[in-house]
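so my prof wants the structure for this chain in the C-alpha cells format not the other one, which i didnt know existed until like an hour ago. anyway here's the sequence
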Amino acid sequence: MGKSLIKKILFLVTVGLTSLVASEEFGFVGIGIGYQQIDPGIFETNHTTFGIRAGRQSLNWRAVFGLNYEKDLHTVFVEADYIFLDEMFGTPKLRPYLGLNFNYIDYDNFYDYSRDINIDEQGYSMGINIGLIIYAGDRVDIDIGYHYNSVLGIEPVDYLQALTLGIHYFY
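here's what i got, hopefully its the right format
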C-alpha cells in the first residue's frame, strides 16, 4: 500500500467512524500522554508520546481521532470504542470500553542492529484497545487505556503496546 492511499483510507475511516456515532452526540477535544513499547523481546524500544485528541461520543459509542508525537515516533490514530457495563457499575461516572484502532506510524531514527543501519520507516498498525472512562466533571473526563497493535510495513517490528492517559473537554 502506498503512503497516500493509507492516508486517504485513514481520513475516510475517521469521517465514517465519526458519523457512526448516533443519537445524542457530544464532541470533545483533549490531550494525551502515552507510554509505548515496541516489540518487546527480540527488538524493544520504549517511547513516551504526547498528543492531541478529538472525537464524538454518544451513550454507547465513541470515535476518537488523534496525533501522537515523540522525537522518533509519530502516529496518527483512529479509534472506535463501545462503552459498556453501565448497569453493573450503577453510575455513569465510571465507564469501561472495548474498541478497535488503526494507526499510521512514522518511525524515524530507527536503528536496525541486525543490518547495522539507521532507517526511517513508515507503516501502519491495527489492534484492540480496552480502558476506563472516568468522569471528573460535567465537561471533563479522564481516559485510561491499554492498546495492543499488530504492526505492518515496518521491519522487523511485529507489534506495539501502549498505556495511555487522556483528558477530554466536552463542548
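also thought this was worth mentioning. The longest strand covers residues 94-112.
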